[in-house]
Design brief:
mainly alpha; 8 helices; elongated
Amino acid sequence: MSDETPAGSSRRWLVLVVALVLIAALGFAAGRFSTFGSQSAASTPGTDSPEAGFSRDMQVHHAQAVELAMEIYRKTDDEELRVLSYDIATGQAAQRGEMYDWLVRWGLSQSGGPMMRWMDAADAGHDHGGAPTEPMTGEEARAAMGMASAEEIAALKAATGTDADCRFLTLMIRHHEGAIPMAKALLELGTDPRALEIAQAIENGQTAEIDAMTSMQTRLGCTG
């Protein structure tokens, strides 16, 4: 068990919150500077482009990952999981800030169209002959993206000890498994160099994190 005092724990939690805000701001700025020179050479993505859909949906997806990671970071006693949750929270906060900036620079709304609809072109390329599917509801899209339900988040918040650790690992593995097809779809459909770079980083990074979390589940004796 951790021997931190409540005051010390609160200070550490505040430091992480401030760090996440700063990282998101840096991600926002990095997006501006890293693509400023190359954007004029390429056509700006439109509101129905794969890049716009990816940016909108992945911001929603990343926001929940940050929430889940901060929750387990706050209370886990497992040092390996604490380090991983910190990496997830800070890394995805930075990417989310950059994606927000893409839409700002492209002059596009931060929301628009049914979630995951932009992926239909990629799906069509691998599933010939089927009738067009109806847009998913928001709840259906969130489930397809591997996101946790309100009930699952409440259960994680109520859990403690190894139970909380195992609940988090189950939710985050599923969450990552939902992000990887989105990244692959953008790699297939997109053209913006920076967006493609981030999509590849998400695919590679989250695949590696799934492996790490699966190993943690075995070490902690998680079941179900």
